[in-house]
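Form P-L/3: holo structure prediction, ligand 2-acetamido-2-deoxy-beta-D-glucopyranose.
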Amino acid sequence: MGLFIEDTWMEIFLLITTSIVIVINYFHKTYNYWTRKGVPTIRPKFPLGNTNILLPRSFSVGTLSKRFYDEFKRQGHRFGGVYLVTAPNLVIVDPELIKDIMGKDFQHFVDRGFYYNKEDDPLSAHLFAIDGLDWKNLRVKLTPTFTSGKMKKMFHSMIECVNNMKEAIDKSLGEDIDIKEMLGRFTTDVIGCCAFGIECNSFKYPDAEFRAMGHKIFQPGLLKSIRAFLAMNLPKLALRLGVKTLNEDIAKFFKDIVADTVKLRQEKNIRRNDFLQILIDLQDSANFTIGEMAAQVFLFFIAGFETSSTAMTFGLYELARNPDVQKKLREEICQVLEKYDNKITYESLNEMKYLEQVFDETLRMYPPLPNLNRRCTKNYTLPDTNVVVEEGTSLLISALGLHMDPEYYPEPEKFDPERFSEENKKARHPFVHLPFGDGPRNCIGLRFGLMQSKIGIITVIKNFHLSVSPLTKPVEFNPRTFLLSSKNNVYLKAENE
Ligand code: HEM
Ligand SMILES: *[C@@H]1O[C@H](CO)[C@@H](O)[C@H](O)[C@H]1NC(C)=O
Ligand SMILES: *[C@@H]1O[C@H](CO)[C@@H](O)[C@H](O)[C@H]1NC(C)=O
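OUTPUT (holo model):
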């Protein structure tokens, strides 16, 4: 009897020790990947590697990849390897390498490497996420959506939406305005109008469905964090488990609205100047299913309103903090608009050079997408080295890291639109300013995003004098969001100009 117990204990002991040895071996091997390749690395810690996700003081991907950038740069490396949990990721530091990877050698880096699940979660199969040939085909089909001709047609819808915002600010003079909420309503109205041909008027009806969906999608939550963790770090398991990135009700909302609108338009022969119409018109050649259409419209919705409202929030915040810049910008706006009967026109937008500088500087300090992702799709030898980046390896390009690098932008914390004068721009490497990414996989909605952001800023600065409310705490980035955002609300005060 005694012998038997000892045997059992012995077996359990052996089992545990073997398991531990196997696990240690696995991590040892995994965490030696970059060293074996002769790539500089930051010492990973068991079991999270170089991340600290799930820990109380965790960072967002954007802040994390900036830390990697800063560390490799400090050591004088052009690139370096890290481990996100166990997945090897290559951090690219040298702008010349970034240029090759995003441009000339794009064929090796077609994918973004994000999780999507066509079967269980059709809305996740949108242009931002999908891979390879599927991406290429869809990108070609969707590109005509964003020509300047199409943008011109949407311009007037945008102007109607911005007038609603102007009225709302008029009613809040002297009060503490939560500027992100204000701008979020504006961009929600714009995208509702331009994507679906629906007049949302979030100012009159702040709880309207679109605005509510917007809040819901970007609200952090535990379940969402777990799903995101699985999708990011264990994509194969996530796919097998059928993990969905979206709540059922959000998915249903978008699918229904697209299905209903398409049906209505086809039955009644209605035409509109919006994204959905462009997709319907593409139907004959592109052969989209309703699910595929819904996924693209959903993407335009999320990509369209949050990025621009974030950028404008930070832009107006910096203008409020820098009265000289605000004054100079107002002078330019008034001077240009004088030629156009004091109305914002499509042509007038391109004549405001200082506005462009102000917005470029805003996107430098606060890139809404602070980290760019690529995944190697074909073995690639890094130029002037014998390091082979293997197929399947993920790449991190820290836009925020480049944008805040004192080598390219002395005193990076200082807001200074002069950095983007023609002369100063020419003197810098073009790949150290990447708010919209670059190459064939850059932001497809760049023109649309710029147009709505400019219209928003012009309207506010033309009509109101802005200052920062004492309620506003210094900007600190929210560690829990994918897009860059401020942890605390930004409150501004507006006075009549
Ligand atoms: C200020 C506003 C915006 C900013 C800063 C921004 C930024 C970005 C960035 C950095 C990327 C990744 C590029 C890369 O990996 O090289 C991207 C991709 C994308 N953006 Fe935007 N964006 C904005 C507005 C918009 C708007 C308004 C739309 C659509 C209506 C849009 C749709 C997309 C799509 C579909 C992609 C994926 C493209 C692809 O993978 O082929 N974006 N955006
Ligand atoms: C469109 O898709 C359906 C189902 O996926 C297929 O049966 C049909 O042949 C396709 N039509 C064209 C023109 O590609
Ligand atoms: C890619 O590179 C790895 C490591 O150098 C090698 O083992 C693999 O066979 C290569 N794959 C192809 C398709 O060349």
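COMMENT: The chain is about 55% helix and 10% strand.
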